[in-house]
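lol forgot to send this yesterday, sorry. struct tokens for the thing we talked abt
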């Protein structure tokens, strides 16, 4: 068995894996497993694949060849990207990238400026020109024209001769390669374990790569999704076709029943696909019943709005629906919402009343908040007449099919509900009343009470809903109840029952009282568009014809070898009892997401069928056992879990722990947890995995996922705390040197944030390489409440020292090391901050960390923007002359250089800037070399498109630099 270092312990293509991960995330519902159902915080499959390859692939003496082979296997090398290209590059872009000779020979520019190929240019030549242009693109741009790696048949496209030659394998497909690499390392096909399997991405990808898997979770919904990913997607074509036929059968039966009831068709034969409801309440000032909505725009594309018309006789508002209105009517509807700033804005009396007052919320004598809404009873699914909030149907979208030139076309009509429509609503309530008790007893609709918690208490206090079925209106309960009734009746296999449950869960996620109406897309959105149970004052309901998009799950067979071992268990991570060679886990860290609470939304519907299909499973979320919170309970749970995993791992086994924090306290705490679990850190890499950053690795760095690589702790050594500092310094410098040496100069993998992360990891590598450290009481440190302790722990101090070493070692490009060391802390902070801005870093936390590293307390005075994800430093023109009265600033070369630029630009004369430096900077003649480097650095900022605010100041910096360089006595 092999203890040789893994590829991931030496190097990792952070930038490319980040970009591929981002591309996968941007596919949204097009991701391979998201179609099976909702789970929070799924990690990209490409990241899992890269991590597994990194663990199994040995690091050789030829680092460059290792990287080439690694990228080749993942189809992320230049040739692989070309094979993945599935879209043509626009002719104009090809023209921009090819040589001048080819521009002249193969292209023509029309009079209107449009570029096209010359006549007679054959398809083969066009492909050749496309490839030449593609080769010159950046990795980011290439990805725009490529499918994801998982969509390519790697068996046929990979250069197996080159791969096998370098790795000493004899593989002809990806599964064979991973199994062979596993045997080389462990002596057998390895098992990959995950005791926090969530949506199943980690075990699914491991299985797809031909490895044995062990997946477990505390939560039944997570295990259901993981089971589906491994046992449904691996089914034969025949089995998958049977599942699709089963789906259709259930849908057709529900459709037939709803049609017979006549609750979705109007008298014209049109069928409703969407219903819009709002809540209505009485204005305490004037007594009018006011319908509630933040906006009365229904459809921006169809220009449909709701118009409120006061009815003085009933002291209520009629709601009129109009389509095809003018833009000013859209603006008026947007502005006339009756809910703003969490207050009722009454259109009858123009008075404003906080919703909390309307609900009757108040504080008791000791300051505890008491919420005023009545809590609904177990048998209720509509409000009582005396309740604060009444539900009202205010718009229906009907559809009809027409024949247009031999093609079928769907026409949609938004209408104000008629008397007949309201009669159909009453019929829905009556139909549900007739079935309610029976359906609850048979498990067709939920009956469970909502247990209060961080997320679940919101629906209780904001609407009074106390039972899970109350999150659904009568129409939603009736439709979803029919689906589950027919799933239960007609499913013939375990796969069909599970597949039916997945469809029901998707329908619930898109069709509840918590489903907001999106006026831009003109559709009802899902409940879990974020990690909360949000209530709305107006919401949408999908008719069955619209709900079919959620019910029908698009699946295709994905190759998972029949001979691999697949184990899926519903069990606490503390009791996971199967030995795995590799553990890859993404733990629920520090209350980031309350999985246990959020999943109860689905469990309320699934309990009966889950118990039928998996009789040994429990059907509650096990809140009491969930790893949550901060402080001692959380830490002790994590230690117990990871110690258990370590005990169920061979001596040469490996782990990867994924987490998304970059707070030093969290890092310190995690280090102590893993250290206590007898694990040592061998590497750490940060992969950008989130999609809301607005770009690939573009500043929102905390949105990334840290891959912390671990092995078993085998040392028995003890060290004193003060002995660690020189060792950490050496490790930090060595790690940075190695990363720089291995980096791709044309397409860099690492920026400063990556080097700082390496410093974090280096400190942990040194720390966890020892059995004991004198002066650090692990149990005492883990018992501290991270939120309340202001004094940094010894481990935090070690990490801070590593970060400071990294900052001192990472000299900005263009600066002499001697000159850099002469700069004051605030000067280093400013220059280093600008360098990080050049790399795209715009997150405030990065500047905060930078300030801590250099010991700069007043750093915010140097920032032009302090918003979390838009932070940046001031330009010279924005600084003006602030701070020049301080002796510290006045004597510094950086601050005087900024002042010189400001003066020169203000007077539009570069000599003014040079003269300022001559007259005001003490020791000007001795500091000219410093100024030349500073001004040269600032002048380079004009070449970065995202730093346009520096363009003019940078231009003056360049001119002043030359004046200073050539200045004579």
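and heres what i got for the seq, position by position
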């Amino acid at each position: 068995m092999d203890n040789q270092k893994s590829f991931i312990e030496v190097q990792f293509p952070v930038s490319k894996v980040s970009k591929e991960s981002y591309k996968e995330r941007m596919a949204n519902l097009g991701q391979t497993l998201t179609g099976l159902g909702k789970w929070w915080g799924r990690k990209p499959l490409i990241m899992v694949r890269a991590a597994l390859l990194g663990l199994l692939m040995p690091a050789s003496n030829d680092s460059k060849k290792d990287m080439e082979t690694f990228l080749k296997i993942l189809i992320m090398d230049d040739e692989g990207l070309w094979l993945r290209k599935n879209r043509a590059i626009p002719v104009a872009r090809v023209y921009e990238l090819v040589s001048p000779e080819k521009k002249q020979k193969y292209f023509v520019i029309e009079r209107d400026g449009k570029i096209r190929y010359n006549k007679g240019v054959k398809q083969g030549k066009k492909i050749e020109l496309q490839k030449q242009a593609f080769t010159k693109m950046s990795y980011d741009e290439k990805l725009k024209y490529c499918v994801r790696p998982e969509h390519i048949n790697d068996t046929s496209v990979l250069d197996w001769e080159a791969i096998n030659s370098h790795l000493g394998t004899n593989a002809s497909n990806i599964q064979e390669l991973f199994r062979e690499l596993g045997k080389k390392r462990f002596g057998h096909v390895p098992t990959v374990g995950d005791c926090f399997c969530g949506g199943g991405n980690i075990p699914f990808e491991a299985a797809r790569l031909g490895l044995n898997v062990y997946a477990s979770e505390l939560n039944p919904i997570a295990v259901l999704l993981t089971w589906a990913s491994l046992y449904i997607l691996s089914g034969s074509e025949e089995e998958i076709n049977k599942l699709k036929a089963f789906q259709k059968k259930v849908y057709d039966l529900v459709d037939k029943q709803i049609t017979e009831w006549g609750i979705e068709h109007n008298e014209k034969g049109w069928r409703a696909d969407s219903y819009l409801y709002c809540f209505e309440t009485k204005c305490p000032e004037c007594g009018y019943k006011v319908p509630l909505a933040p906006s009365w725009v229904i459809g921006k594309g169809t220009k449909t709005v709701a118009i409120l018309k006061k009815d003085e006789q009933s002291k209520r508002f009629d709601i009129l629906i109009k389509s095809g209105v003018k833009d000013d009517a859209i603006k008026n509807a947007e502005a006339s919402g009756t809910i703003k700033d969490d207050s009722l804005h009454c259109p009858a009396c123009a008075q404003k009343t906080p919703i909390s007052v309307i609900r009757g919320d108040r504080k008791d004598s000791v300051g505890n908040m008491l919420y005023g809404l009545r809590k609904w009873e177990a048998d209720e699914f509509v409000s009582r007449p005396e309740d604060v909030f009444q539900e009202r149907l205010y718009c229906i979208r009907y559809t009809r099919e027409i024949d247009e030139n031999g093609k079928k076309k769907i026409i949609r009509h938004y209408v104000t509900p008629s008397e007949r429509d309201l009669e159909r609503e009453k019929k829905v309530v009556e139909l549900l009343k007739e079935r309610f008790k029976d359906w609850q007893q048979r498990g067709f609709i939920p009956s469970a009470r909502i247990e209060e918690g961080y997320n679940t208490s919101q629906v209780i206090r904001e609407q009074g809903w106390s039972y899970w079925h109350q999150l659904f209106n009568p129409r939603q309960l009736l439709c979803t109840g029919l689906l589950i009734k027919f799933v239960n009746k007609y499913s013939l296999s375990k796969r069909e029952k599970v597949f039916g449950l997945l469809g029901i869960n998707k329908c619930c996620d898109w069709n509840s009282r918590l489903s907001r109406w999106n006026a831009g897309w003109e559709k009802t959105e899902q409940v879990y568009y974020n990690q909360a149970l949000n209530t709305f004052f107006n919401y949408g309901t999908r008719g069955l014809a619209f709900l079919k998009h959620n019910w029908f799950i698009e699946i295709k067979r994905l190759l998972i070898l029949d001979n691999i071992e697949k184990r899926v268990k519903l069990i606490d991570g503390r009791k996971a009892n199967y030995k795995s060679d590799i553990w890859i886990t993404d733990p629920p860290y520090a209350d980031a997401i309350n999985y246990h609470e959020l999943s109860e939304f689905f469990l309320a519907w699934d309990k009966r069928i889950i118990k039928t299909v998996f009789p040994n499973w429990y059907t509650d979320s096990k809140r009491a056992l969930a790893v949550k919170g901060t402080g001692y309970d959380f830490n002790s749970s994590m230690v117990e879990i990871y110690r258990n995993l370590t005990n169920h791992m061979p001596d040469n086994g490996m782990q990867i722990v994924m987490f998304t924090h970059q707070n030093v306290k969290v890092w310190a705490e995690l280090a102590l947890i893993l250290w206590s679990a007898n694990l040592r850190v061998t590497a750490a890499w940060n992969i950008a995995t989130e999609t809301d950053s607005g770009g690939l690795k573009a500043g929102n760095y905390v949105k990334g996922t840290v891959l912390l690589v671990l092995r078993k702790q085998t040392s028995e050594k003890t060290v004193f705390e003060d002995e660690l500092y020189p060792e950490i310094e050496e490790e930090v410098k060595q790690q940075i040197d190695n990363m720089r040496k291995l980096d791709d100069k044309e397409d860099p993998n690492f920026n400063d944030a990556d080097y700082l992360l390496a410093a974090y990891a280096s400190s942990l590598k040194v720390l966890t390489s020892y059995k004991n450290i004198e002066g650090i009481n692990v149990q005492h440190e883990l018992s501290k409440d991270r939120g309340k302790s202001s004094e940094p722990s010894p481990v935090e101090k070690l990490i801070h020292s590593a970060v400071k070493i990294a900052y001192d070692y990472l000299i900005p490009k263009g600066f002499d090391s001697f000159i850099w060391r002469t700069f004051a802390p605030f000067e280093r902070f400013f220059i280093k901050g600008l360098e990080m801005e050049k790399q795209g870093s715009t997150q405030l936390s990065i500047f905060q960390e930078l300030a801590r590293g250099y010991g700069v307390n007043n750093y915010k005075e140097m920032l032009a923007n302090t918003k979390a994800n838009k932070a940046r430093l001031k330009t010279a023109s924005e600084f003006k002359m602030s701070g020049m009265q301080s002796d510290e600033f006045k004597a510094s070369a950086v601050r005087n250089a900024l002042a010189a630029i400001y003066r020169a630009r203000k007077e539009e004369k570069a000599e003014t800037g040079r003269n300022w430096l001559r007259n005001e900077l003490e020791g000007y003649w001795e500091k000219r070399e410093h100024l030349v480097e500073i001004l040269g650095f600032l002048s380079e900022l004009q070449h970065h498109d995202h730093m346009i605010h520096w363009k003019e100041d940078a231009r003056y910096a360049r001119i002043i630099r030359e004046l200073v360089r050539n200045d004579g006595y």
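The mean pLDDT is 90. anyway ping me if u want another try
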